[in-house]
Amino acid sequence: MGEEVHLGLPGPWAEDYREKADHYTTKIGGVPDWPTEDLGIKPHLLECSLCGNKLCLVAQVYAPVAKLNIENRTIYVLVCPKPKCGSNPQSWKVLRVQKCHSTEQTDGKVDETDQIKENFCSSEPSSSSSLNKSNEASDDDFDLDALANALEQAATLASNSKKQNKSKCSNAPIKCPTGKEKVDDPGVPVLPCFYIYYDKEKSRGKCILGSNSSESVLVKGLADVANDDEEKWEGENYEYERAIGADRTFLKFKKRLDAYPQQCFRYSCGGKPLLAAINLQDPGTCQLCGSPRQYELQFMSPLSYFLHEAGDGSLDYAPDGWTWLTLIIYTCAKSCCPSSCVGKSRSCCWGVAEEEIMIQED
């Protein structure tokens, strides 16, 4: 079987874009829900590298890693609110915030919230056996029912936040009134906020481009053009091959996007990204431990559409100037913790690491 991909789809809108939730909440926009107030995040990680302006939250994704026994782990994606900066990769930042493994448990005790997360964390997104084969399920399988239950219980216990598995049949986020506490700092720019629920991308086997599809016809046509010009010099043949590869890559991207036009992001930790173009740079290695980075998730263009739809003249910031097709996030394969937290007391059990983001433009 191919790798499993889990899609982040739009749930309910937040009643107030500055309302508080918790770090177990997966959402688009709003304000970051840090797990603790004393994270010790260095100021430059929350500022634009180009203009120094405060960054705003694009997405917050709760992302435990079962195979590494890391339950408290959240990915935060931030961007500069200035339109002139938003199209530059240097104005984007990805922060991985997690509780250091060595201090997850003290004296053999596990807090009540961690126990509630157990089902979620033992069933993180993976590329193992089908969800329908319950008798073959392993700790790496992703059980959507378990995910729904775990998120619902965790949200109730931690902050009575919105349940993330509502409005599954909606075509767009729906306004759902709540009476939640909000962040009153006007200096923090915010994007419109809505919550996310997950769905599994249906497997299509190897038929990414159907034999009768217009995409296949176009690709075949490009190949025929190349074959007709066999006497062209080698450099020209190379350009033909690149054109065929580029078009095929984009058509595959478009077909997968069109199959789920509401997808805001795709999650497949350790899997492969869905590329819109073939020119993707090396994500490099972790700045903390030197381990290779691996693909974890990517954001898709419908995200920008939903945020634009929320524009009602009262927003602090709208995603103007965004022309990207996809934002691809790479994280440390070992999901390491900063050395400053290793062996320290429980008051220093949260680590913050900057990860890599790559942009593929329209």
UniProtKB/TrEMBL annotation:
Gene name per UniProt? LOC102702369
UniProt protein name: Programmed cell death protein 2 C-terminal domain-containing protein
Question: What are the residue boundaries of the Programmed cell death protein 2 C-terminal domain, all occurrences included?
Answer: 247-361
Q: Which InterPro entries match?
A: PDCD2_C
Per the record, GO CC terms?
Answer: cytoplasm
